[in-house]
Amino acid sequence: MRRKLIAVFLGVFTVCVPLFAHHGAAAYDTSKKLALKGIVTEWFWANPHCFLRFDVKDDKGNVAHWAAETSNPSDMVNLGWSKQSFKPGDEVTVTVEPVKNGLPIGRIEQVVLANGQILKARVVF
Amino acid sequence: MLRYILIATLALISPGMVASPAHAQTGSPQQPASATNQNAAPAPRRDISGTWDPGNGGIQPLGPRNMPEDGKLEHQLPYTPLGLETLNAHKPSNGVRSVLPGETNDPVVYCDPQGMPREDLYELRTTQIIQTPLKVFVLYEFGKIWRVVWTDGRDLPKEPEPRWFGYSIGKWEDDYTFVVQTSGTDERTWVDRAGRPHSADLRVEEKFHRLDHDTLELTVTINDPKMYTKPWVALDKLPFKLQPPKFDVREMMCSPSEFAEYNKIIGNPASGKGAQ
């Protein structure tokens, strides 16, 4: 029984491994994940990749202007995203893998909307 | 421990449910679960027409599905010295030789056509095939590109002017297998996303085999003696699933203005080139 459950677990895990791709991962620190609460300033729905721009305020009131990419519109539609997923002013919590050079750029793992809806962006490059 | 595994399993299943497609008007392609479908009707004779989807197996970010550039010995291609030299001049943004997004010289990133055989070997998405008495049209989602495969009995041109997609002729090997030969491809194109090279002498063989009514398999063989010491199989029976007749294929285009915006905001700063 124990062995069977472990097999099921591994099977599910394999299915959940990201499946689509475009640009490479060389710029990103794939060992890091950041959950950033911010306000949307732009949702760019385009090829080769869509990207979300949002402002994140720290405890001292300093604002960082983040930009984080997803895959292309065709893939994102398959994952339940659309051009109408965000509009400026929306409150979002964005989980990203940041770039290695420390700039406020990342690629999105998921976005939690103000109403609690989760948009997953399974990415691998 | 068992309880933990169950909880972890449910946790992994849940995001998938959250991420289920919202089903826009076009819907999502039905993807091939496996090559064989026991419930499918038999394949029609000499007919590969239809709207076909290869699922995620067609994306091939590291190079062709059967020969990715992943550093494994079994995927090492039989390069000639010229092949290796040309490979090393190519700077892909995927695979074991990947560079930063702003440093790649992948022509497709800059919106050049993929050409042949790369249209089969990178971002191969929903594909429409239309048969007419003299030619077969293949319509690709990526780049919204179409090709002509002549079936009027002509030979390949002897001294072709190079074309991005070359010249293609097709013949039925048997009632269920359509074989396409392509030559005359433009040397500026790469064979795949990983930057594998080709010369003007490249010959590509595509074998479309209709396994049953709902399943088509594609096998692609690369033969270029200037770059490789022997032919190699890039795709081996990649399965496609037949889509409903009213399936509306999405648009997936490279737009120079959208690419410029992407590079300005993401690609260049991520590569240490300029600020946001």
Please outline what is shown here.
Helices cover 17% and strands 36% of the residues of chain A.
What does this structure look like?
In chain A, β5 and β6 form a beta hairpin. A five-stranded mixed barrel of chain A has the order 1-2-3-5-4. The radius of gyration of chain A is 16 Å and the shape is globular. Chain A contains two helices and six strands; from the N terminus they run αβββαβββ. Chain B is of the alpha+beta class and 276 residues long. Chain B has a nine-stranded antiparallel sheet with strand order 4-3-2-1-9-8-7-6-5. At the A-B interface, α1, β3, α2 and β6 of A face α1 and α4 of B.
Structure characteristics:
heterodimer, A: 125 residues, alpha+beta, 5-stranded mixed beta barrel, 6 strands, globular, disordered N terminus, B: 276 residues, 9-stranded antiparallel β-sheet, 4 helices, 9 strands
Sheet with the most strands, sense and barrel status of chain A: 5 strands, mixed, barrel
Total DSSP E strands of chain A: 6
User: Which regions of chain B are unreliable across 5 or more consecutive residues at pLDDT < 50?
Assistant: 1-25
Largest interface: A-B, 51 and 52 residues
Distance between the termini of chain B: 47 Å
Radius of gyration of chain B: 20 Å
The main sheet of chain B comes to: 9 strands, antiparallel
The backbone outline of chain B, from C-alpha atoms, is: globular
Q: Find the structural class of chain A using helix and strand composition.
A: alpha+beta
Within the largest sheet of chain B, what's the order of strands?
A: 4-3-2-1-9-8-7-6-5
SSE class of chain B: alpha+beta
- Enumerate the strands of the largest sheet of chain A in spatial order, edge to edge or round the barrel: 1-2-3-5-4
Mean pLDDT of chain A, to the nearest integer, reads 82
H/E topology pattern of chain A: HEEEHEEE
